[in-house]
Specification:
The structure holds three protein chains of three kinds. Chain A has helices at about 10-20, 35-40, 75-80, 85-90, 90-100, 100-105, 110-115, 120-130, 225-235, 240-255, 265-290; strands at about 5, 25-30, 50, 60-65, 65-70, 135-140, 140-145, 150-155, 155, 165-170, 180-185, 195-205, 210-215. By secondary structure, chain A is of the alpha+beta class. In chain A, the strands form four sheets. Chain A has a five-stranded antiparallel sheet with strand order 4-5-10-6-7. Chain A has a three-stranded parallel sheet with strand order 1-3-2, covered by helices on one side. The longest helix of chain A has 27 residues, at about 265-290. In chain B, the strands form seven sheets. Chain B has an eight-stranded mixed sheet with strand order 3-5-1-12-9-10-11-21, sandwiched between helices. In chain B, strands 7-15-14-13-8 form a five-stranded mixed sheet. In chain B, a hairpin with a 2-residue loop joins strand 28 and strand 29. Chain B is globular and about 85 Å long. The relative contact order of chain B is 0.13. Chain C has five helices and five strands. Chain C has helices at about 25-35, 90-95, 105-120, 125-130, 145-155; strands at about 5-10, 15-20, 50-55, 60, 75. A five-stranded mixed sheet of chain C has the order 2-1-5-3-4, with helices on both faces. Classes of the chains: A alpha+beta, B alpha+beta, C alpha+beta. At the A-C interface, helix 2, strand 3 and helix 6 of A face strand 4 of C.
């Protein structure tokens, strides 16, 4: 391993200075659980590691002005345990609790799950369904982009961690009448990557679905949005039990997962997507109706 | 009335558990020596290729690198077990992805790793044979040029008149089953430290199950005498059959150490554990079963084709077990088995808990269930009707001196019926079922006239503490504890006064090692006999001191006392002091070489070859999500005839662990190859159960008091795994009406079996 | 890989200073530099849990944590649990429940159990399973872990069945 420096900037400004100092040879590290493996396999070879976890601002996890703010140093365990999460954002809590193991969730960050750009990163799939946005800072300034737009390919993020920093991810808290759910099928009940995962976020008004967002993985280069299913759902009567099945079928038809010796055939995984989509919708809608009452 | 024991049959904590819970127990990788170097091995990326050239040039000039070796540095001898087909480093060609090509030693692991990347190997890839079909096809490429047809070994074993018996049966059924490649996958990566003494002696530290075999095989590989090698065994982090035999890295470390004059440590990475460890022999097994209308099992024929991998190691012996042992589960009139072992360009196979017997149990115990259902009979009744019993001599000449098979079947089939969940939930989307399967296994394994026993050395120290030495390894199963319990019981001293010494071939008495579920039965018996001799010495001396006839003395709780006048007593410690630190010069030591009273198998594999035969039965309840194909094992009732449990908690631990590995084999674990390349060489993609995947397990210990084993004990290590996969397959048929013939039974397989046309499932 | 960075942290209650390389894992520093071999290396890829230590009281895989991450923090390894020589009640419970076979996963499992019991003195079966889900054990089938953790809860005096 060629790393020669390990630094702890204390502010975002210092962090940018450090990135500048190493001219693209310094790489940000938050939890580092993926980065450790990449370093060992020599997939990346930075000169410096710039640890962002001691920047106070990046440790924020709070609800502010109707938004949930998740700083870049916040772990999966912290998000899953956050008091407001169960009530408002089932989908994110359930997704964060699905990742790896307690030991990994205690160190791996939610923002890291976005930046490592795996198409089935559980937290990231939930964030895409929640239409989360990332605040990105670099020497050139700052900007906000939907999480969904940050994928450049399998395991490749548009975020360049040698010069850009995602300071936080923000989620607009769903209003009354909304509900969400996250489901996954994996080879075992812990320590496993998903064969299929599905996140569903719906809003119900006047007995009808007024908004629906779905995300699923691994179905391609990035979290998959079954848009036809989403469109179909809007306006559906919540008593129409066959609608969830229909939405699942639409999602399966739109998806194109590849055959995998380990994860299963494309056909089988499309079927699982259908089943999970239906189940996630049933659960999300039930929660939405509860919140209405 | 049975005698009240002081430690036998008690749930005493394992004697080494204290060292383990504090983190003080030293495993191989926890040891290091001054000047020690780290070895790394360059492995083939090709399943089959000619080695054109190996150029170590630049690796040697990397600072910190102390040696690079290739085939040219190795003795030309081939080694291995029955078929010596292994070279220390590949010379002419590589035969599997992971085959050893070169090795380096350096001052750190990182430098050694970097040096590997500087060795230039030129390969000329050859067509490879990745599975049985390809290997057996006419004109197939040969894995070894001197093994025509890629056949490593073939057996044909026949007892009775099979053809006539089939002709007389009411029903004859035939099906084919297949088992998959699974890995012992112990948690502690296998490794070695090798060091040469100035006088030419080689010392090897390695966490191996069979230290004396290791010494012998290593001597063969290195052209040395076994007694010039010392094998020392630190704590072993699990073995399950995967650490019985040496691997190439053992002689490699020895050669690197010789070349550098420094100790060399090699510990496999987890990826190497997947690429180059020894998986279970996967086999296709065709079973033909002949029955009468009333469910009497008459005759059986099996045809086995087994995937050996690139080198043979223990696979020939495993194939033999696969071919024979299930013939002795039921009272068949005749059996015939043809079995062939086929070379492929995949990782060499070897032993894993069950040693071949597990594979054929999957086939037979699935088949018995399937046939019973076809005849409209209760599979449990069919098993009970045909089960072997005490006093039987089986078709292969096994003399059954104790047998609790029937009791095991009755226990688990009753237990699984209690508190059963409904067969269906959610309008049939969730389906449930139960199934039963049995096992017979061995506690020892004598081949021909070979020794099949164990030796023990037991000696008192002057303060009354006792040292016990055995040649058998404790890989975590509790051998040390069992030996300590036996010695403490015989000698009437507290368990804390007994120390079971680490295994060291220079000091420990000869023993074959931990396999064939033999350690408690033969190793324990040797300790028992040695302790009895020491007890006689102790009481003789005490009699002299107390002026009493030794036959009137007894010893309990560390005190020797006069049986008819218990007020007259003397501490064991005082007698030991008097024996050792005075002119008395008493030995208070015994060395016993014990060989069980079995005759061994003859040239036709006939004969009573195990000290005892073990029996068990598992019953499982499964739940299937028919929408996704996911199978959950809800409960397992597991009964084992262990003769007598020396440590019931230890027996239960073996049952829990065996069940878990059985569930893993049936549903989760599988080494997946594509074009000869392993696709899942990591613990993230090779799926072991976690605590969240465990079924409830209800263990039953069945006592049959074997007449030969110590305190009536028999083995349980291997049998605890074997019946689980067929019990699960049988439960799935009960739940779904579908029979699964191949392992593992993945959710996708279940899904495909439930939907004849999968497209329909999507609608 | 040269040791250019000074790592200061509190290890098992004592201040420790050690020179480390910036990309060195906490696992390697503990085992190779500080000679605390009770923390085991089972896979080095965060999949088995054998290398689990407590960082600021929380279980982490020390193979996935760079040593520098411990700078200024507290770390507990298995050696810290019985520093006085007396077994910790959790260690006693594992021993008594027969939850130890080969022992290679044991140190990590005990530390996760400690983190759980520190947080939740009377855990349910489900909570125990959730907390121990990051540990692979090939010997025991985990069943005796459940008993051990519950037994430890009783020993710690805060829980009755």
């Amino acid at each position: 391993m060629s790393v020669q420096h390990y630094v702890f900037p204390e502010t975002i400004a210092e962090c940018l200075q450090e990135m500048n100092r190493f001219h693209g040879q310094g790489r940000l590290i938050a939890g580092g659980t993926d980065l450790m493996i990449w370093l060992r396999k020599k997939k990346v070879a930075p000169v410096a590691l710039i640890d962002v976890t001691r920047i106070a601002e990046l440790n924020q996890l709070e609800i502010k002005d109707g938004n949930l703010l998740i700083g870049a140093a916040v772990t999966h365990a912290q998000v899953a345990a956050h008091a407001g999460m169960r009530a408002l954002l089932h989908v994110l809590a359930e997704a964060c609790n699905s990742v790896g193991s307690p030991q990994i969730r205690n160190i791996a960050t939610v923002v890291g799950n976005v930046v490592s750009a795996q198409p089935a990163g559980d937290a990231a799939v939930a964030l895409v369904a929640l239409n989360a946005r990332a605040r990105i800072v670099s020497a050139e300034g700052s900007r906000v982009e939907p999480v969904e737009e940050l994928y450049a390919g399998v395991g490749r993020s548009k975020i360049d961690s040698t010069r850009e920093l995602v300071t936080l991810v923000e989620v607009l808290l769903p209003g009354p009448g909304s509900g969400s759910a996250f489901l996954r099928i994996a080879p075992r009940n812990a320590l496993a990557l998903p064969v299929v995962n599905v996140a569903a976020v719906v809003t119900v008004a006047d007995g009808k679905i007024s908004a629906a967002r779905l995300a699923a993985g691994p179905m391609g280069e990035k979290p998959f949005r079954p848009r036809r299913a989403e469109e179909f759902l809007v306006g559906t009567d919540v008593r129409e039990q066959t609608a969830w099945e229909e939405a699942g079928a639409l999602a399966a038809r739109e998806a194109n997962p590849r055959d995998s010796l380990l994860r299963g055939s494309s056909l089988y995984r499309k079927h699982l997507l259908q089943v999970l989509t239906r189940r996630a919708l049933q659960s999300a809608v039930a929660r939405a109706l509860e919140r209405q009452e | 009335m049975q005698k009240e024991y002081s430690t036998i049959g008690k749930n005493v904590p394992f004697v080494d558990a204290r060292e383990k819970v504090t983190g003080r127990a030293k495993y191989l990788d926890d040891l290091s020596f001054p000047g020690m170097l780290y070895g790394k091995i360059l492995r083939s990326p090709y399943p089959h290729a000619r080695i054109v050239n190996v150029d170590p040039g630049r690796a040697l000039s990397l600072p910190g690198v102390k040696a690079v070796i290739t085939a040219a540095d190795c003795p030309a001898t081939r080694f291995g077990l029955e078929i010596p087909d292994v070279s220390i480093l590949a010379g002419d060609k590589v035969r599997y992805v992971g085959d050893e090509v070169a090795a380096v030693s350096a001052v750190s692991e990182e430098i050694a790793e970097e040096a590997l990347s500087l060795i230039k190997v030129e390969y000329a890839p050859l067509p490879s044979v990745d599975d049985l079909e390809a290997a057996l096809a006419p004109g197939a490429p040969l894995v070894h040029d001197d093994k025509p047809g890629n056949i490593g070994k073939a057996y044909k074993i026949e007892r009775g008149d099979v053809d006539a018996d089939f002709a007389g049966c009411d029903y004859v059924f035939e099906e084919e089953f297949a088992t998959s490649r699974v890995l012992p996958c112990y948690l502690e990566p296998f490794g070695v430290i090798a060091s040469w003494e100035n006088d030419g002696w080689l010392t090897i530290w390695t966490g191996i199950q069979a230290a004396f075999h290791a010494r012998f095989e290593l001597a063969r590989a290195l052209n040395m005498q076994p007694s010039d090698i010392s094998v020392k065994v630190p704590y072993i982090g699990g073995g399950f059959g995967g650490k019985i035999w040496i691997r190439n890295f053992h002689p490699i470390a020895a050669l690197l150490a010789k070349k550098t004059g420094r100790p060399v440590k090699i510990v496999l990475s987890r990826e190497e554990e997947f690429l180059a460890s020894r998986p279970r022999v996967a086999a296709r097994i065709k079973v033909k079963l002949g029955l009468m209308r009333d469910g009497t099992l008459v005759c059986k024929e099996m045809k086995i084709t087994a995937d050996n991998g690139a080198y043979s190691w223990a696979a020939p012996k495993i194939l033999l077990n696969m071919a024979m042992r299930t013939d002795c589960l039921y009272r068949f009139r005749s059996t015939r088995t043809e079995a062939v072992l086929v070379y492929t360009n995949k990782t060499p196979t070897s032993g894993f808990r069950g040693y071949g017997n597990a594979q054929s149990h999957f086939a037979l115990e699935s088949m018995v269930d399937l046939c019973a259902r076809k005849l409209g009979l209760d599979p449990v009744e069919v098993r009970l009707k045909n089960a072997v019993r005490r006093g039987d001599t089986t078709l292969h000449g096994w003399k059954i001196r104790s047998c609790g098979l029937g009791e095991c079947i009755e226990k688990v089939s009753a237990a699984i019926q209690l508190n059963r969940l409904p067969k269906e939930k959610q309008g049939g989307k969730i389906r449930r079922g139960v199934g039963v399967a049995c096992v017979t296994h061995v506690s020892g394994n004598r081949a021909g006239n070979n020794f099949d026993g164990s030796c023990a050395l037991v000696r008192f120290q002057e303060d009354g503490k006792l040292l016990v030495y055995s040649g058998e390894s404790d890989m975590g199963q509790g051998a040390r504890t069992v030996f300590a319990q036996i010695a403490a019981e015989i000698l009437g001293i507290p368990l804390e006064s007994v120390k079971v010494m680490p295994l060291d071939t220079d000091i420990s008495p000869f023993g074959y090692g931990t396999y064939s579920s033999r350690v408690t039965t033969v190793g324990g018996k040797a300790v028992l006999l040695a302790a009895q001799q020491v007890r006689e010495q102790l009481l003789t001396l005490a009699g002299k001191i107390l002026n009493e006839d030794p036959s009137g003395l007894d010893v309990k709780d560390g005190q020797i006392f006069v049986r008819l006048d218990p007020g007259r007593h003397i501490p064991v410690a005082e007698v030991c002091r008097a024996g050792i630190r005075t002119r008395e010069a008493a030995a208070l030591t015994a060395y016993v070489s014990y060989d069980p009273p079995t005759e061994g198998a003859d040239g036709n594999f006939y004969g009573d070859y195990s000290s005892a035969y073990n029996y068990g039965a598992h019953a499982v309840e499964v739940e299937v999500d028919t929408e996704t194909g996911q199978v959950r094992v809800l409960r397992v009732a597991a009964a084992h005839d262990v003769g007598y449990p020396i440590n019931p908690n230890g027996v239960r631990g073996q049952i829990y662990g065996g069940v878990t590995q059985g569930v893993g084999w049936a549903l989760y674990e599988n080494l997946v190859y594509k074009g000869g390349v392993l696709q899942n060489p990591s613990l993230s993609s090779y799926i072991l159960l976690t605590i969240k995947d465990m079924p409830e397990v209800e263990p039953f210990i069945v006592k049959t008091n074997d007449p030969v084993g110590p305190y009536g004990a028999k083995g349980v290590g291997e049998p605890a795994l074997i019946p689980t996969p067929p019990a699960i397959a049988n439960a799935l048929e009960d739940a779904l009406g579908v029979r699964f013939y191949d392992l593992p039974i993945t959710p996708e397989k279940v899904f495909l079996a439930l939907y004849a046309r999968p497209e329909e499932a999507e609608k | 890989m040269s040791d250019t960075h000074l790592l200061k942290f509190v290890l098992n209650g004592e201040e420790v200073e050690v020179m480390v390389a910036p990309a060195e894992t906490l696992l390697d520093v503990l085992r190779k530099k500080l000679l605390l071999t009770g923390t085991k290396k089972g896979c080095a890829e965060g999949e088995c849990g054998a290398c689990t230590v407590l960082l600021e009281g929380k279980p982490v895989n020390s193979c996935l944590v760079l040593a520098m991450k411990a700078h200024g923090k507290t770390v507990m390894t298995i050696e810290g649990l019985s520093a006085t020589g007396e077994l910790h009640p959790i260690q006693e419970a594992f021993l008594e429940a027969g939850a130890v076979q080969c022992g290679f996963c044991t140190p990590g499992v005990i530390l996760s159990a400690k983190a759980l019991l520190d947080r939740e003195p009377a855990p349910s079966d489900e909570e125990i399973k959730n907390e121990l889900a990051g540990h692979l054990c090939r010997c025991t089938g985990y069943i005796q872990f459940l008993e051990a953790v519950k037994r430890a809860a009783v020993k710690l005096g805060k829980f009755n069945f």
